[in-house]
Amino acid sequence: MQRRATLGLMAMFALASQAQAQTLGSDGFRIVAPFPPGGPVDALARLLAAGLAERYKQAAVVENLTGAAGNIGIDKVRRARPDGHTLLVVPAGNLTINPTLMANFPFNIERDFVPVTMLARAPNVLVASPSLKVKNVRELIALAKARPGTLAYASPGVGSGLHLAGELFKQQADVDILHVPYKGTGPALNDVLGGQVPLMFGNLPGTLAHIKSGKLLALGITDTSRSATAPDIPTLAEQGIQGVVVTSWYGLLVPSGTPVAVVERLAKDAAAILGEPSVREQLKAQGLSGTLMPPAEFAAYIRDETAQWARIIKARNIVAE
After folding, report:
1. pLDDT at 85 over 50
2. What is the DSSP string of 199-232?
3. How far apart are CA 136 and CA 311, in angstroms?
């Protein structure tokens, strides 16, 4: 009986050890940010790294593996051991736009990665140069219909999320507005501020100072609700333009084959880290709000948004430059 009890205890300890091995080990964490330091991807990766290091008492290192529009860093994670110790922080466009936009896209997001959770998001806003002399979206649409093909909107480049926001707006508002692509947000914003191009869809955190100073007029938020950062700006939906929901968001993924228990554990860890008051303040300083989703919900969100952008890209015949 005693021998049988001892064997039973040994079996229990073995099962407990297996369960622990199936969650997370002690190898430390590598969090890949496939874009340069200083942006929201890097900021989120560093917040996660600090939180994981504190929770697990292990090293957590951020690697900024840049190049090929983020694909170098993404591929590094795709080929990593699926044990929960190599993670990817990545913006929406790499997951939901590039698979359709880029010819010979090197990954299959659904096959090669497991979504853990959305981390944060920031609303976008339709802004106009004051020289356009419109006060709201209704007046803008009336002007665009009176002058089809003559108004223009700037974007950071062909296929960017802000370009597709403009194309979605054109579709939903049934207007003809010319797209003027730039090489990056900075040059596009400068020309809208200078009045060379009258319109732009921009990230709210990056345009808010200009809105407050009167250098830009905010016409509408591209989200389902108003932003807590700028509650006076109405949504496009409030003004009769439905279906233009385009936010800048960032997600956490791991390589395909990562055990479900590990994925769920990481999702809970991310929620706890981003829920800390000091972290929420740091996100706010970046113009971000923590937005967590369970793994299955996040996977469905990626699929739905990918399908939406595929329809827009094909309908508008958008080709990457």
Report:
1. yes
2. EEEEEHHHHHHHHHHTSSEEEEESSSS--SSSTT
3. 28
Residue-range domain boundaries for the chain: 2-122+249-315, 123-239
Over 70: is that where the pLDDT of 225 sits?
yes
In the 3-class helix/strand/coil scheme, how is 94-151 assigned residue by residue? HHHCHHHHCCCCCCCHHHHEEEEEEEEEEEEEEEECHHHCCCCHHHHHHHHHHCCCCC
**Confidence check: pLDDT of 181 > 50:** yes
Pairing of strands 113-128, 199-203: antiparallel
* Per-residue confidence (pLDDT) for residue 162, from 0 to 100: 92
pLDDT at site 15: 40
How far apart, in whole angstroms, are the C-alpha atoms of residue 166 and residue 195? Answer: 18
Tokens of 47: 């917040």
Q: How many CB atoms lie within 10 A of CB 81?
A: 11
pLDDT tens-digit series, residues 248-269: 999 999 999 999 999 999 999 9
Domain 123-239, architecture per CATH: 3-Layer(aba) Sandwich (3.40)
Q: Which residue shows structure tokens 């960032």? A: 250
Domain 2-122+249-315: CATH architecture, name and number where available: 3-Layer(aba) Sandwich (3.40)
